Amino acid sequence: MERRSFLSHAGAAGIGTALLAAPAVSRAQPAVRWRCQSGVPRTLDILFDTNEEIARRVSEATGGRFNITIAPAGEIVPTAQAADAVIAGTIQSALVSTFWYTGKDPVWAFGTTIPFGMNVRQHNAWWKDGGGERMFNDWLQQRGARFVLAGHTGVQMAGWFRRELRSPADVNGLRIRVSGLAGNVWLGAGAVPQQIAAGDIFPALERGTIDAAEWIGPHDDEKLGFQRVARFYYYPGFAEGTGSPGWLINNRAWDALPAEYRSIFNAAAGEAITTTMARYDARNEPALRRLIAGGTQLREFPRPIMESFWDRAQAMYAEIGRTNAEFKRFHDHYTSFQRDAVGWSRIQENSFDDMIAHLLRRRPAAGAAQRRPG
Amino acid sequence: MERRSFLSHAGAAGIGTALLAAPAVSRAQPAVRWRCQSGVPRTLDILFDTNEEIARRVSEATGGRFNITIAPAGEIVPTAQAADAVIAGTIQSALVSTFWYTGKDPVWAFGTTIPFGMNVRQHNAWWKDGGGERMFNDWLQQRGARFVLAGHTGVQMAGWFRRELRSPADVNGLRIRVSGLAGNVWLGAGAVPQQIAAGDIFPALERGTIDAAEWIGPHDDEKLGFQRVARFYYYPGFAEGTGSPGWLINNRAWDALPAEYRSIFNAAAGEAITTTMARYDARNEPALRRLIAGGTQLREFPRPIMESFWDRAQAMYAEIGRTNAEFKRFHDHYTSFQRDAVGWSRIQENSFDDMIAHLLRRRPAAGAAQRRPG
Fold first, then answer.
1. Is residue A8 predicted with pLDDT exceeding 60?
2. pLDDT tens digits for A327-358?
3. B227 FRET partner, CA 20 to 30 A, in A61, A275, B135, B310?
4. What is the 3-state secondary structure (H, E, C) of A89-126?
C-alpha cells in the first residue's frame, strides 16, 4: 500500500528515477538503536575511537536510522561478563577480544588469537579466506552470538618487567598480570599468573604486588604509565601475534537487522580492520622512542625461554584437545593454515623486510640521494 | 511536497518511527550510475572480484540507488589512458595502480608504491595515519581526481626469468617487461626494460623476444602461464613492497555524490583493503606450491644485485627531485616515515615472525601436540 502511494507521488521525477529510488523508500527501513559496550576505556583512544567511527559510518550510511551508542568498559557490565550480557540480550553488542572468555571455553580464543599464533596478515587470510570466520561463527552462533572482526593491534609487546629475565629459571615465582591461555603457559613455566583489570595493573606493579604485566604496546602502555614503575620492556609478545578486537553481537539483534544494515555494518567493521592497525603502527613507533628516551630498557625475550614456553603451549593444546574435540578441530585447522602461511611469509614478506632493513642500514636513503646518477 | 505526503502515509507506524525514518526518505537520494574501468582483466579474479564486491556493497547499502558497473581492462579505454579518461570525465572511475601513470608525472607513484618502498602495514600506516592519503589527494585533486585505496597485493614477486641471475653483470642486456619507475632502475643497471600489456607478455616470453617479465605473484602469474615459458621465479620484488590498487575518481562525480554515498563508498573500499590482501595471502601459497611441483625454480634475488639496484634507485630519486620539487617533497615525507616504520617493524613484527619460524622448524606443532604436558 505505502509503496504504491509513494510511487504515484514520485511519478513526476520520471519512471526511471522513481523505480530506481523506490526500493529504499518503500521498505520503510526501521529505526534501530543498539548499545555496544567497549572492552576498553576511552583512554585507549585507538580502539575506542575506531569503534565510535564504525557507529558513525553506520549512522551516516543509514541516514541516521541505525544508531549505536558505545559505552566505555565496565559502564554497563564488567568486561568479564560482557559476552554473557550479549548472549542474554542485555546489550546488543560488545567490543571484545574473544580470548577474554577462554574461561567459558578455550575455543573462544580463536576469534582473536592463541599463544604462538598468526600475525595480522596470516590471521586475516585465515579469517577471511581460509574458513576461520565461518568456522568460528558457526560455532558461536549455536551459543547465541556472532563475532565481526573490527581491528588489529599487531604483535603485542611481551610486557613490563621489574627485573630482567635471562634464563627459564628467572620465570620461577614471577607474579605476572596476563590473560587468556597465555596464563596457563606462564603457570606451567613456574610463574604466578594473575588476572587484573586494566585500571588496577599500574598500582599493583607500583606496590610490587606483581613483578610484571603484559598489556598491549607502546602507544597504549605509555598512557597507563607502566614505564614509571617497571624498567624492562620485553618483545615480542608470544601470546598475541595480534590482538584482534571485534564486535560480539547477539543473534536475535543481528537477525532483526534489515539486510541493508547488516551489509553497512560489515563494511564499516571491515574498514576498521585497516584503520585500527594503521593507527597503531603509526603511533607505536614514536611512543616507543619516547619511552626509551625516558629510560625504558628494551629487551628481546631470550630464545631459550620462548622455546620452553612453546613446548608448554604445545602440551597445553594437546591436553585441552583430549577433552575438547571442538578445540582440537579448531587448533588443527588454525595451525595447519599457519604452517603454510608462515612458509609463504618467509618468502614474500620477511625476505623483503630483511632486504630493506639491510639496505637502509648500509646506506641511508637521504645520504645516497645526494649522489649523482652513475 | 513529497515529504509531507509520505509522512502522512507513514503515520500509522507511529510518530517516533516516522520521524526517525524521515531523513532518509525526505532527502530523496538520487539514483546514480557510475562506470568504473578495472585495470585488470576478469582472469585476475582477486582484484576484479573484490571490486565487484565494492560495487555490490554500495548498491546494497543505498537500496539500489548507487550503481557502479565494472568494465574489464581496456573495454572502455586502454589502461594507459584510464587516468586521463577519469580526469576528463569520460568515465567516473577506474581501478588503477597509480604508478602506471609515472610517465605523466613521477609523483603519481606515491598512491601505490615506489621501488624499495614500504610493505603493506607500513604503507597503510603512512596512508591512513601518517598523512600520505591527504598529501596525495591534495596533489591529485588539483589535477581533477581523487584516489581511494582499495586493496593490496603484498610484496610482489620479482618476476619470471628464462635464465639465472648470479651477479650484477647478468643484468646487462636483459630484456625485461617491467612498469613504472622500476623500469628506470633496470635501465640504469644495463637491462632493456619494456612496457608490455598483460595479454602480450606470455607470447613475448614464449617467443624469446623478452628474457624476463615481472607481474604480480603466484596466484595471478600461474593463470597467465608464465611457468610454461620461463623457469626461474625470483623474489622479493624490490619494486613493489605492495601493489596498492585503488579507485581513481573524477572530482565532479565525487562532489556530486550525497555525503551518505561517499561515506558508504569509503567504507566499502576500506573493507576491500583487507579482503584483497587476505585472498592473495591465502591463495598465493598453494599456487606457489603447485608451481614448484611443476618444475619452477624459486630463487632469491642475489643481494649484490639488490645493492646495485638500490644505489641506482637512490640516484634516480635524487635526479627526479632536482627538477620536480613536488616529487622531492613526497619522497622525503615517504622515506622519512619508512625509516621509522622499518625500525618498528624489526622490533614488533619481524622478531615475532623469526621466532615463530624458528619454533616451527625446531619442533612442528603437530608433532609436539602428541606429547604429554610436562
1. no
2. 999 999 999 999 999 999 999 999 999 999 99
3. B310
4. CCCCEEEECHHHHCCCCHHHHHHCCCCCCCCHHHHHHH
Question: Do A366 and B277 lie within an 8 Å CB cutoff?
Answer: no
The model's pLDDT over A228-256, given as tens digits with 9 standing for 90+, comes to 999 999 999 999 999 999 999 999 999 99
pLDDT of residue A49 exceeding 70, the answer is: yes
- Whether the per-residue pLDDT at B298 is higher than 90: the answer is yes
Q: Is B62 helix (H, G, I), strand (E, B) or coil?
A: coil
Give the domain A3-154+242-281 fold: D-Maltodextrin-Binding Protein; domain 2 (3.40.190)
* d(CA B349, nearest CA chain A) in Å: 6
How many pairs of residues across A and B have Cβ atoms under 8 Å apart?
387
To the nearest whole angstrom, how far is the Cα of A315 from the nearest Cα of chain B? 4
C-alpha gyration radius of chain A: 24
Cα–Cα distance for residue pair A218/A174, rounded to 1 Å: 22
Whether residue B369 is predicted with pLDDT greater than 60 in this model: the reply is no
Can you read off the three cell numbers belonging to residue A198? 586494566
* Alpha-carbon gap, residue B63 to A319, rounded angstroms: 51
Rounded to a whole number of angstroms, the distance from the CA of A87 to the nearest CA of chain B is 27
Distance CA B305, CA A115 (A): 39
Alpha carbon distance B247, B254 (integer Å): 11
Which member of A30, A270, A364 has the closest CB to residue B275? Answer: A270
Nearest residue to B213 (alpha-carbon basis) of B194, B190, B199: B194
> Which of chain B's residues have a Cβ under 8 Å away from the Cβ of A321?
369
In this complex, the residue of B65, B130, B343 whose CB is nearest that of residue A24 is: B65
A328-334 — which CB contacts under 8 Å span 24+ positions?
A330/A107, A330/A110, A330/A135, A330/A136, A330/A139, A331/A114, A331/B369, A332/B366, A333/A131, A333/A132, A333/A135, A334/A110, A334/A114, A334/A117, A334/A118, A334/A126, A334/A132
CB contact under 8 A, A263 and B61: yes
- Alpha helices, DSSP H, located in chain B: 2-10, 15-26, 45-61, 82-88, 120-128, 132-141, 182-188, 198-207, 218-224, 251-255, 259-293, 303-323, 325-345, 351-362, 365-368
**B341 to A281: CB separation less than 8 angstroms, yes or no:** yes
pLDDT above 60 (res B27): no
Complex ipTM: 0.90
Tell which of A7, A155, A284 to mutate to test the B interface (max B CBs under 10 Å).
A155
Q: For B153-258, where are the alpha helices, taking DSSP H only?
A: 182-188, 198-207, 218-224, 251-255
Is the pLDDT confidence value at B38 over 90? yes
| B62-112 tens-digit pLDDT | 989 999 999 999 999 999 999 999 999 999 999 999 999 999 999 999 999
A113 and A240 Cβ atoms separated by less than 8 Å? yes
- CA–CA separation, A165 and A172 (whole Å): 10
| Set of chain A residues whose Cβ sits within 8 Å of the Cβ of B312 | 373-374
Q: Which pLDDT band, with edges at 50, 70 and 90, does B28 fall under?
A: low
* The A232-235 sheet, strands edge to edge: A192-194, A175-177, A212-213, A159-161, A232-235, A297-300
